[in-house]
Amino acid sequence: MEPVRVLVADDKENMRKLFAKILADGYDVETAQDGASALALVASRAYDVVVTDIRMPGADGFELLAAVKARAPTTEVVMVTGYATVADAVRAMKQGAFDYLEKPFDPDAALAVVARAAEHKRLVDAARLAAAPGDPDAFHNLVGRSPRMREVYALLDKAAHVDATVLVLGETGTGKELAARAIHYHSGRRERRFMPVNCGALPGELIESELFGHARGAFTGAAVAKPGLFEEARGGTVFLDEVGELPLSAQVKLNRALQEKEIRRVGESTPVKIDVRIVAATHRDLREEVRAGRFREDLFYRLNVIAVTLPPLRDRAEDVPLLAAHFLDKHARALRRELRGFEPEVLVRLAGYAWPGNVRELENTIERAVAVAGGERIGLADLPPEVAAPPAGAAPAEALAALPYRDAVAGARDRVTREYLVALLTEFEGNVTRAAERAGLERESLHRLLRKHGLRSEDFKPA
Ligand SMILES: Nc1ncnc2c1ncn2[C@@H]1O[C@H](COP(=O)(O)OP(=O)(O)OP(=O)(O)O)[C@@H](O)[C@H]1O
Ligand SMILES: [Mg+2]
Q1: Ligand 1 binding pocket includes 38 (Cβ within 6 Å)
Q2: Which domains can be identified in the chain, with CATH numbers?
Q3: pLDDT tens string 394-427
Q4: Are 428 and 408 in contact (CB under 8 A)?
């Protein structure tokens, strides 16, 4: 069997030496002494297991974890943590780390964790290979085997291999960012950077300098010249997330930059050539935005060369069990809970629920269920009430007729309330003060409603 390839990233030499010694037998160990060199290594080489310190100069363990998972989702990451950072380690596991080692650790325990991680990766890789070619259950980080998702995978694969601009569409939580990353990491640009920017998170003036950079003294606060994302991503991919939120003035400049394949830093007149692929995403109906005069038609056509639409989860309920199992595995490991799966009626409810927040909402639901589960399996009691309750509004007539009037109406009201809250928070990106203003509610009442419906405003904030 091939030796297991391990990268050890730690700024302390004694730790690097220790791991080299522990893993001397049967492992192929490389080391990095800071986050930046670790990032460079994982960008260009394939590892089975990455062992990383959480706190390092350059890039920290979280950045490394994200880079590894985006590039090679089956590579397992083990976090090394001091007593003070155990909470961080738990967070890392939620973000996909395999396990963590708390210092000081026993060398045998460290060896056992790395061996388990390597074995897990081997099994997952084998399972992926076994899935018939052209018939996958997953694409890069996207999980799902419905016909609609298979069409999406085929299109993403095609898009990855041409250098065209891609517009990713879909409701909130459908996996638009994952799709953008999948395109980058399947493209010829994969060794270069993937640079995401949330166009809705910055005011107009800042977005321009973020994208195009600025000269020294271009505006108050611009003490030094700074390259923008387009320059920094050279050779890579720029992901324009929430592109529908881009102010019109920035749309004009973006359109010109894409047309001329060059940019000018704010406050500078010399043009700079750019070499990036653009992937843009929005949850809005851009044609409607064009009709309403909020989005420039020329930019729309320039972005919309290849359009990939991610279907809402309610249109592919057959993916729910697979996704639920995937998230159960992920969060059970993160929270170190041994759970054997779901009670059957739970899967029925999960598949029947409308998931207005799509895959993100499903993941949050499973994460919460794992945390509160009392038994060996996730039961109905571990689900939020609106998921556990039979769907009054969407129920077939006879199920509806089986309910007392009060329950049927209450169920429908709950469902609509929840949909409303999701729409409201999506619109205001988790800003409760502004959302409450629009809703005509006191902030406190809105908070109460959110709690009641198991929604968290943070989940609607841009990443
Ligand atoms: N097909 C999928 N397989 C596995 N995980 C998924 C899938 N789709 C979405 N997710 C998970 O759901 C969450 C939301 O995904 P993502 O951020 O890509 O959605 P989005 O479409 O960009 O949402 P928004 O419009 O709210 O920004 C993430 O945690 C992501 O990992
Ligand atoms: Mg997104």
Answers
A1: no
A2: 4-130 (3.40.50.2300), 142-309 (3.40.50.300), 314-460 (1.10.8.60)
A3: 555 544 555 567 666 766 777 788 889 988 998 9
A4: no
